[in-house]
C-alpha cells in the first residue's frame, strides 16, 4: 500500500527528506503525494528504487537529479523537470514547461503531453519521449541520448548539436545550426521500437525522421563564423 | 653643406609595436587571439593603496607575540555545515581539463596543508582532487560537465558560477587538443573536438529562477552545504544584491585581472572592471541589505601577496581567492623552462597559450609527458609555503594597524596614491582627507 504524504500539511523539506531517506533505504517503497500545488523542487535528489506518484501539478525542478526512482506527475510539470536526471523513469501525464530534462545523463523522461522550449537542452545521455509537440531551441547543444517527439518540433531544433539523436514524427519548423536530417538505419528503428514500447507511445518507428549533427562545427573554423 | 638634422624615429603611441603585431596577426590568420590568464593591461590596483600603520592615535600589536587571528568561516547564512578555514586565502576554481590531474592534486595538497579550500572547475570533480582536498568547493557551471548528485553531496560547498572576471558574459572553449579520452569521458563528448562551455545556465535565466535553483540544490544536499554565487566584475553593487536576494551564503566576486583557461584577448582586456573598483560597491550592497559579514564576500582577480590580501579585507571582503598566483607557485611560467618557452615563441612570465596544452611546466596540459614534469607533492608544498607567506604578510600589516583579527582591518587604515584608486576604494588620497565622490565636498 502506498504511503501518502499531504503537502497541505507537510513542508517541502519534510516531504523530500522522507522520500530521500526511503530511496536510500533501497526498500522499493511506494509513495503518493497529495496537494502538490505547484511546489518547486519536489521529489528531487532521490537516490534509489522508489515509486512516487504526485497527484497534481508541480513547479520548477521536479525530480531533479533523479537516480533509480520512478516519479509520476499526474498533472503538468514546471520548468526543468528531471533536470540532470541520472537514471530511473520520470513520467509527466500532462505538459512540461521549458528545459525539460536539461543536461539529463540517463533514464527515461516520458512526457505524455507537450513540452515547451529548450526541451532536452544540453542533454548528456537521457532518453526523452514527448507524446505531443516540443517548443523552439530543443536539444540545444545536445551531447548524448535520444529525444523522440511524436508531434511537431519548433524553431531551431538541435542547434549546435553534438552526438544526441533526435527523432521527430511530425513537422520540424526549422533546424538549428549544424543540425541535419540523417538516414534512418536499422539500429535506429530498433531503438525506436524499444523506446516507444517502454513509453507506451502509440506510434510506429517508420513514421519518424532522424536528425543529428553535421559535425561541421566540431573544430573551430573561421569560415563557419556565419553559422552564428 | 651641413646635413639636415633628422628627427629621432618616433613610434606611435596609438599604433605601438604591440598594436601593430596584433594587426599583422589578425591579418594573417583571420581569427581573434585566444589566450589564458587575466587582463595584462595596467589598471588601478591594490599597489595604489597604502596602509597608514599605528602611530600616536593607534597602538600596534607585537609581532611574534600578540595574536592576530586569520580564521574565516564561510556560509553561515543558511548552511548547516559552514566552511571553516584557517586562513583568508582560498584557491579559485580551475578545471581538470584546463589543468592536468597532477596540478589539481597539487592544488588540493597545498590548500589542505595551509588549512584552506580548493575549488573544482568546468569538467567535474576528479578523485585526485577530492582525495587530496580536505575542503573542496564544487562548481555548478552552465555546461554541467560531470555534474551528478553524488559529487554534489561529496562536496563541502557548492559554487554556482554566473560569471568570471576575465570574461563577464562569456562562455569558454577548450580546444580539441586538450580533449583526451579521460577529459572527453568526464564531459560526455567525443575525443578531440572543441568543447564549448555555455555562457548561460540551461535551466534558469535570472535571479528569481536562481532562487528556486538554489532551493533545489539545498533540498538535494539536505541544506548542509554553503551555496556560493560567483560573479564577474560587471555591476558589482547590483550583482551582489541580486545574489543575496537569490539566497547565496557567499558571494565570490572576480575582477578583470582574474584568469581564465582560454578566452579572446579582446574580451579579457575590454570587458569587466578592475578588482579594486568592484569591492566597495559589493560591500555597499551587503551593508545596505544588512548582510555584511552575514553573507561572506570572497574577492579574486590579481591577488599576489599578503598586502593585497590585507587591502581586500580592509575594504570589506571576508576572504580572497587566488588562481594565477597559485599556478605560479606550482611552477607555471618558471624561467627554468625558458628555452622551451622560446621555442613556443614566448618567454617565461609571458606564456599564456594555456589552451594549446603545450605548457612546458606541465600544469595547463593533458599531455602525459609534460604533465609528469609536475610532482604534485613538491608542488603542493610550494603552494603551502606561498599561502603561509601571504598569511604572515597579511598578519604583519594587520598587527601594525593594531588589529587582533585580520577582519578588523578597515578602510580607515588605508590611503590611496592616485586619484583613481582613491575614487574606486573610497579612501582618502594620501596627504588629504578627500577622495573623489566623497559627500560634503
Report a brief summary of the structure.
The complex is a heterodimer of chains A (228) and B (441). By secondary structure, chain A is an alpha/beta fold. Helices cover 11% and strands 23% of the residues of chain A.
Structural description of this entry:
The complex is a heterodimer of chains A (228) and B (441). With 228 residues, chain A is of the alpha/beta class. Chain A has helices spanning 12-24, 186-198, and strands spanning 3-6, 30-34, 51-55, 70-73, 89-92, 108-111, 124-130, 144-149, 165-168, 179-182, 209-213. In chain A, strands 1-2-3-4-5-6-7-8-9-11-10 form an eleven-stranded mixed β-sheet, covered by helices on one side. The longest helix of chain A is centred in the N-terminal third of the chain and has 13 residues, at 12-24. The relative contact order of chain A is 0.09. The mean pLDDT of chain A is 96. Chain B is α/β, with parallel strands linked by helices and 441 residues long. Chain B has a single domain (36-425), classed as Aldolase class I (TIM Barrel), CATH 3.20.20.70. Helix content of chain B is 34%, strand content 13%. Chain B contains 15 helices and 16 strands. Chain B has helices at 17-29, 101-114, 127-132, 149-154, 181-187, 207-220, 236-246, 265-270, 275-288, 306-314, 324-330, 338-343, 368-371, 376-400, 419-425; strands at 34-35, 49-51, 72-74, 83-85, 89-91, 118-119, 136-140, 157-161, 172-174, 195-197, 227-232, 250-254, 263-264, 296-300, 319-322, 414-416. In chain B, strands 5-15-14-12-11-8-7-6 form an eight-stranded parallel β-sheet. In chain B, strands 1-13 form a two-stranded antiparallel ribbon. In chain B, β3 (72-74) and β4 (83-85) form a beta hairpin. In chain B, α9 (275-288) packs parallel to α15. The longest helix of chain B is centred in the C-terminal third of the chain and has 25 residues, at 376-400. Chain B is globular, with a radius of gyration of 22 Å. The model of chain B has no long low-confidence stretch (mean pLDDT 95). The chains are: A alpha/beta (228), B alpha/beta (441). The interface between A and B is large, with 41 and 35 residues.
Amino acid at each position: 500500500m502506498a504511503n501518502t504524504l499531504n503537502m497541505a500539511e507537510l513542508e517541502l523539506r519534510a516531504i523530500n527528506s522522507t522520500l530521500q531517506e526511503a530511496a536510500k533505504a533501497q526498500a522499493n517503497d511506494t509513495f503518493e503525494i497529495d496537494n502538490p500545488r505547484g511546489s518547486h523542487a519536489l521529489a528531487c535528489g532521490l537516490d534509489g528504487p522508489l515509486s512516487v506518484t504526485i497527484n497534481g501539478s508541480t513547479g520548477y525542478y521536479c525530480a531533479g537529479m533523479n537516480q533509480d526512482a520512478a516519479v509520476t506527475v499526474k498533472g503538468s510539470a514546471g520548468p526543468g523537470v528531471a533536470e540532470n536526471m541520472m537514471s530511473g523513469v520520470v513520467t509527466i501525464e500532462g505538459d512540461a514547461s521549458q528545459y525539460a530534462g536539461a543536461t539529463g545523463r540517463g533514464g527515461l523522461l516520458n512526457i505524455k503531453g507537450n513540452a515547451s522550449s529548450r526541451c532536452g537542452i544540453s542533454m548528456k545521455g537521457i532518453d526523452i519521449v514527448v507524446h505531443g509537440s516540443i517548443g523552439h531551441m530543443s536539444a540545444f547543444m545536445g551531447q548524448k541520448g535520444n529525444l523522440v517527439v511524436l508531434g511537431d518540433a519548433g524553431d531551431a531544433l538541435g542547434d549546435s548539436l553534438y552526438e544526441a539523436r533526435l527523432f521527430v514524427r511530425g513537422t520540424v519548423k526549422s533546424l538549428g545550426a549544424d543540425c541535419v536530417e540523417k538516414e534512418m538505419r536499422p539500429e535506429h528503428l530498433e531503438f525506436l521500437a524499444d523506446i516507444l514500447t517502454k513509453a507506451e507511445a502509440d506510434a510506429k518507428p517508420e513514421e519518424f525522421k532522424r536528425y543529428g549533427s553535421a559535425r561541421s562545427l566540431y573544430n573551430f573554423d573561421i569560415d563557419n563564423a556565419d553559422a552564428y | 653643406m651641413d646635413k639636415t638634422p633628422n628627427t629621432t624615429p618616433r613610434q606611435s603611441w596609438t599604433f605601438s609595436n604591440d598594436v601593430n603585431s596584433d594587426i599583422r596577426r589578425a591579418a594573417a590568420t583571420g581569427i581573434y587571439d585566444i589566450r589564458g590568464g587575466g587582463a595584462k593591461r595596467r589598471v588601478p590596483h591594490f599597489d595604489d593603496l597604502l596602509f597608514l600603520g599605528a602611530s600616536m592615535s593607534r597602538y600596534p600589536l607585537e609581532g611574534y607575540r600578540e595574536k592576530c587571528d586569520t580564521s574565516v568561516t564561510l556560509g553561515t547564512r543558511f548552511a548547516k555545515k559552514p566552511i571553516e578555514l584557517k586562513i583568508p586565502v582560498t584557491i579559485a576554481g580551475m578545471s581538470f581539463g584546463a589543468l592536468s590531474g597532477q596540478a589539481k592534486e597539487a592544488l588540493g595538497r597545498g590548500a589542505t596543508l595551509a588549512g584552506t579550500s580548493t575549488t573544482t572547475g568546468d569538467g567535474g570533480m576528479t578523485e585526485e582532487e577530492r582525495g587530496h582536498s580536505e575542503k573542496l568547493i564544487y562548481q555548478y557551471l552552465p555546461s554541467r560537465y560531470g555534474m551528478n548528485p553524488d559529487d554534489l553531496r561529496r562536496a563541502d560547498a557548492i559554487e554556482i558560477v554566473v560569471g568570471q572576471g576575465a570574461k563577464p558574459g562569456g562562455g569558454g572553449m577548450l580546444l580539441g587538443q586538450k580533449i583526451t579520452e579521460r577529459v572527453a569521458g568526464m564531459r560526455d563528448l567525443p575525443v578531440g573536438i572543441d568543447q564549448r562551455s555555455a555562457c548561460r545556465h540551461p535551466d534558469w535565466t535570472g535571479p528569481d529562477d536562481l532562487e528556486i535553483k538554489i532551493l533545489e540544490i539545498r533540498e538535494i544536499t539536505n541544506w548542509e552545504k554553503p551555496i556560493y554565487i560567483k560573479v564577474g566584475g560587471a555591476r558589482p553593487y547590483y550583482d551582489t544584491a541580486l545574489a543575496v536576494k537569490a539566497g547565496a551564503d557567499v558571494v565570490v566576486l572576480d575582477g578583470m585581472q582574474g584568469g581564465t583557461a582560454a578566452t579572446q584577448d579582446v574580451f579579457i582586456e575590454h570587458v569587466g572592471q578592475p578588482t579594486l573598483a568592484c569591492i566597495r560597491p559589493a560591500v555597499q550592497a551587503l551593508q545596505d541589505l544588512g548582510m555584511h559579514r552575514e553573507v561572506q564576500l570572497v574577492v579574486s582577480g590579481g591577488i599576489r601577496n599578503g598586502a593585497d590580501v590585507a587591502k581586500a579585507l580592509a575594504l570589506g571582503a571576508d576572504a580572497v581567492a587566488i588562481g594565477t598566483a597559485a599556478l605560479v607557485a606550482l611552477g607555471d611560467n618558471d624561467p627554468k623552462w625558458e628555452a622551451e618557452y622560446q621555442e613556443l615563441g614566448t618567454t617565461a612570465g609571458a606564456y599564456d597559450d594555456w589552451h594549446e596544452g603545450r605548457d612546458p611546466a606541465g600544469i595547463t596540459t593533458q599531455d602525459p609527458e609534460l604533465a609528469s614534469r609536475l610532482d604534485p607533492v613538491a608542488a603542493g608544498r610550494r603552494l603551502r609555503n606561498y599561502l603561509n607567506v601571504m598569511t604572515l604578510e597579511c598578519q604583519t600589516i594587520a598587527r601594525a594597524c593594531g588589529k587582533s583579527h585580520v577582519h578588523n582591518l578597515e578602510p580607515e587604515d588605508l590611503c590611496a596614491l592616485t586619484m583613481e584608486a582613491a575614487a574606486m576604494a573610497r579612501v582618502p588620497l594620501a596627504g588629504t582627507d578627500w577622495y573623489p565622490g566623497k559627500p560634503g565636498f
